[in-house]
Amino acid sequence: MGFGLTTTAYMFKATCELGGEWVVEGVVPYGDLSLSPSSAVLNYGQGVFEGMKAFRTSEGELLVFRPDENAKRCEEGAGRMSMPAVPRDLFRDAVLRTVSANAEYVPPVGMGSLYLRPLLIGTGAILGLGPAPSYTFLVYCSPVASYFKGGQLTPIDLTVEETYHRAAPGGSGSTKCIGNYSPVLKVQLEAKKRGFSDVMYLDAKENKYIEEVSSCNFFCVKGKTISTPSLQGTILPGITRKSICELAAARGFTVEERNVSIDEVMNADECFCTGTAVVVAPVGSVEYKGKTVKFCDGKVGPTSQAMYDELTGIQQGKLPDERGWNVKVPKFPISG
Ligand SMILES: Cc1ncc(COP(=O)(O)O)c(C=O)c1O
After folding, report:
1. Does residue 206 surpass a pLDDT of 60?
2. Residues with CB under 6 A from ligand 1
3. How far is the CA of 126 from the centre of ligand 1 (A)?
4. Is pLDDT of 335 > 80?
């Protein structure tokens, strides 16, 4: 099992008229949606999504990692895309009910997780450019394992993209809006054809500072300092990124959120990427302007390993959850 879609029995659904209250349908059978050809999401890409995971512990409990952070990011994204926000308690309840209804799909401990995909879209019909008259909020899910080929902790090879940019100052780079993702496919597919796992983007102004990878944040390590690009509106404020910054600081690393130049990366001791889907992915090599730098002999670096072990240990209930990041999934009856 990699990161492919395996559909499950149930999804969660709620709807809202512009200016109205959310109406909860609750847990419903997973299935297709019926949409007007002139729905705002199809024509204007009015939509945001989230990615989060639920884990099974060795005691058989189900845990969701930091769902309130996703609720907050979804709320901010809704604001940026002129959509009614999903109230945070509705978001959390929807996620927990989706996991509970699909509990049998959560993989055994250590074998993967249940990836959750909350989706907020403008489903109402509209012709002229404007916010949709109505909205749908869904949570569906799929059991998953490793995002990159080769399994978790297999070092990935990245190439630095110099022509295309993922986002620009003042744009929507820090929003998890659906339109941010298809433009990266062309670049990513080209890189994959050349044998790379993914692409690193540079800033659109100077083409010099690291932004992020197609679907994850970037860190580099030099001695006891861990640096990651700061949040200036062009990269996604990753929840894994935020968690790793906290865990690394608690381990005595100096954590710097600032501009990280590509030259600095080429001289780093170690690099890794973070994200809900990729977890902590060690970087084996980076190619830039025809030059390739290998990190840690292409093996998993000690910091990547330590960060991976600590994060997954907390998420799977193997290590104490000192920061209260996990939310236990109650057993709900299957109904709205
Ligand atoms: C562009 C991008 N950057 C970074 C991330 C990592 O964010 P998170 O750690 O919240 O999953 C994601 C995934 O959601 C992403 O799509």
Report:
1. yes
2. 51, 212, 215-217, 236, 238-241, 274-276
3. 30
4. no
